[in-house]
Design brief:
Largest interface: A-B, 53 and 41 residues
Order of helices and strands of chain B: EEHEEEHEEHEHEEHEEEHEH
Oligomer: heterodimer
Number of helices of chain B: 7
Helix content of chain B: 10-25%
Largest sheet of chain B: 6 strands, antiparallel
Strand content of chain A: 15-25%
Structural class of chain B: alpha/beta
Number of strands of chain A: 12
Structural class of chain A: alpha+beta
Number of strands of chain B: 14
Distance between the termini of chain A: 57 Å
Shape of chain A: globular
Number of helices of chain A: 14
Strand order of the largest sheet of chain A: 3-2-6-7-8-9-1-10
Strand content of chain B: 25-35%
Strand order of the largest sheet of chain B: 4-3-6-1-2-5
Largest sheet of chain A: 8 strands, mixed
């Protein structure tokens, strides 16, 4: 068996294999939520899974970058002591979507490099990803504009395509091979017909995407500082600084660090999600705050998402097209990524005389 | 895999009161082998942990060429710095580092050096000034300009006196507001430029201080004819992790904690925000 190969298998047979993975790992996947939605959580059996969903509103971020992650526990004293709290317990993420896998690939790059973030990387090394390609999009999905889906060519351990009674399985890694090797019978090499069927399903999904985000133009404008200052100001006026967009974003990773005392002598140093959209994000102890205005923070967010400097640094624009910011944004339809991309294209061009001034000053 | 976030324990050897709200701490690592191996470059910083209060970054102000211990100068402004100000000799804290890039040192040998410091901007520059004195014959003309709010707000008063007495450096000081003890110039640090003679072509200028001061210093240096990469400054941002992950100190696509804190004007001027 090799990476890149494709097989088909009866759904029930594959679910039985998934169920057997619970022995050595947490099995996490889609379950029915309280309001007819879907919630990813650890299950005691695959019977708890639902298959009637497109995606969860919360990104799978929390399973690799917990809302609160304890870094080490310390005990105060003449000579303080501390012990690291690295969680590397194995987990299997089942049923996550391509856009979220793409987000994870972004973190893999971000948390390595010169400084290896062992908390993330050890958790990641013990995570298995069984993703599902999307047969239909939500009316907020635009992954097709960001190469975030609806299916991927790499990044997963196994990628499933739902054929109704069967799954088409795309092998993505050695971890994926190890799972398939547990299957005693019923695994058949995908036929030309299967591959054609998959192609048609994906093409149909592509054609159903509603929002558009022509990011290339926006990247050019932001990179060259060719955006009317007034547009950022308008957007700053519309933004509630709620931080929702960064919290649901499968790419955003910013965190705060704090000490929390559990008893008078014992405490933990923890990190927890933070947002560049909060006014306190850059406030210094002296009170000096370089990004005090909402406009400056909005500008920051989209510079990070869409400037060429970051695209080069991260290998990808800071968006996978999951569409969650469209759902979460309080300034409905004004400040989600596709909306901003559209506004940059249509309203962002500076007046000719302003451009002239910029050219002289640079 | 090495744990990026675990500090090493370090003990305070000495505490010096600099100004009413600023103290200098000399520390060494408890682990002898770690302490021996600890080395850093001018301009680098450390993250100091006061367990239970948090962690904060401080520029190293000691001479990187002298091993055995290191120093930081701390102004009491927030939770961690206030807790540090209550510390006594023998108290133990956590230290991570050295972090960040550094001032060019070997690279600027053979040139004249101009240092422009404001207030608590002098400490990081001291980690450059002292090694220059140690290798004084490798450098040309050496000028230090230092400005502070009042005479009392000047840090390292002993060292300043010692430098003033040396004949291989020109030290000029100014204060925003004088008191009865002050006989020197009054005014912002840029007013000292007219009192000195530098050849911009032979000189590297290093500046550190409050953001507003840095802005005016750079403006004047450019007007004097300094090339963009002969102006070396530090950028300051709220930092948390110190290793380019938490996102707080990002300016443009640079993370001050790993790409900085030292930047040339050539690098700074293209950042989308300053």
């Amino acid at each position: 068996m090799k990476v890149g190969q494709k097989y088909t298998i009866d759904k029930q047979a594959f679910l039985a294999v998934l169920d057997s993975l619970r022995k050595g790992a947490k099995l996490i996947g889609p379950t029915p939520g309280p309001d007819g939605d879907v919630v990813f959580r650890e299950v005691a059996s695959v019977a708890e899974f639902t298959f009637d969903y497109v995606n969860e509103f919360d990104p799978v971020k929390r399973f690799l970058i917990p809302h609160r992650q304890d870094l080490f526990r310390f005990t105060l004293g003449k000579r303080p002591t501390f012990e690291p709290l690295v969680d590397s317990s194995p987990q299997v993420l089942c049923g996550i979507r391509s856009c979220d896998v793409k987000g994870i690939l972004h973190w893999d790059k971000f948390f390595s490099g010169t400084y290896l973030d062992n908390y993330y990387l050890e958790k990641r090394a013990n995570t298995t990803i069984i993703s599902v390609a999307c047969n239909k999009p939500l009316d907020t999905c635009f992954c097709i504009c960001c190469d975030g889906g609806p299916w991927l060519e790499a990044g997963f351990d196994l990628q499933l395509t739902d054929f109704g009674d069967r799954y088409l399985i795309h092998v993505g890694s050695k971890k994926g091979i190890a799972i398939l090797e547990k299957i005693k019978k019923g695994l058949v090499a995908a036929t030309q017909e299967d591959l054609q069927r998959r192609k048609e399903l994906m093409a149909k999904c592509d054609s159903q995407m509603v929002p558009t985000a022509y990011v290339a133009k926006a990247i050019i404008q932001i990179t060259n500082n060719r955006v009317r200052e007034e547009l950022w100001e308008e957007m700053g006026f519309e933004c509630f600084s709620c931080g929702g967009c960064t919290h649901v974003c499968p790419v955003c990773t910013c965190y705060d660090v704090a000490d929390y005392m559990e008893s008078p002598t014992c405490g933990v140093r923890l990190r927890c999600w933070d947002s560049c959209q909060y006014s306190g994000f850059t406030r210094e102890a002296s009170g000096h705050n370089p990004r005090e205005k909402t406009k400056e923070r909005i500008k920051r967010r989209f510079y990070h998402k869409l400037s060429y400097a970051y695209v080069k640094l991260d290998g990808h624009q800071g968006c996978v097209g999951c569409g969650r910011c469209i759902t979460v944004c309080e300034a409905i339809g004004l400040l989600d990524l596709p909306a901003v991309v559209k506004r940059l294209r249509r309203e962002g061009q500076p007046e000719p005389e302003q451009l002239g001034a910029q050219r002289h000053s640079s | 895999m090495e744990n990026l976030y675990l500090p090493q324990l370090a003990v305070i050897d000495q505490i010096v009161d600099e100004t009413p709200d600023t103290k200098t701490f000399t520390l060494h690592f408890l682990d002898e082998r770690y302490n021996k191996a600890f080395s850093y470059k001018p301009g680098q910083f450390v993250e100091v942990s006061v367990f239970g209060k948090g962690e904060a970054p401080f520029g190293l102000c000691s001479n990187p060429l002298r091993k055995g211990n290191f120093r930081i100068t701390v102004r009491a402004t927030g939770t961690v710095t206030n807790a540090l100000h209550e510390a006594k000799v023998g108290d133990v804290f956590g230290v991570r580092g050295p972090l960040g890039n550094s001032f060019p040192f070997e690279e600027v040998m053979g040139h004249d050096i101009l240092i422009v410091a404001g207030g608590i901007g002098l400490p990081p520059l001291r980690s450059l000034i002292e090694p220059i004195f140690d290798k004084r014959n490798k450098f040309g003309e050496f000028t230090i300009l230092y400005g502070a709010r009042t005479p009392t707000d000047r840090v390292y008063k002993d060292a300043l006196e010692e430098w003033a007495a040396r004949d291989d450096v020109r030290l000029l000081q100014t204060v925003d507001r004088a008191d009865e003890t002050w006989t020197g110039p009054v005014g912002v640090v840029t007013t000292l430029f007219e009192k000195i003679k530098v050849d911009p072509k032979r000189t590297f200028a290093f500046t550190c201080g409050p953001p507003i001061m840095i802005r005016f210093v750079i403006q004047d240096l450019l007007a004097m004819g300094f090339a963009d990469d002969h102006i070396i400054s530090t950028l300051e941002r709220y930092m948390k992790c110190g290793v380019g992950k938490c996102g707080h100190c990002a300016i443009g696509h640079k993370y001050i904690c790993v790409d900085g804190p030292v930047f040339s004007w050539r690098q700074i001027k293209v950042l989308p925000e300053r």
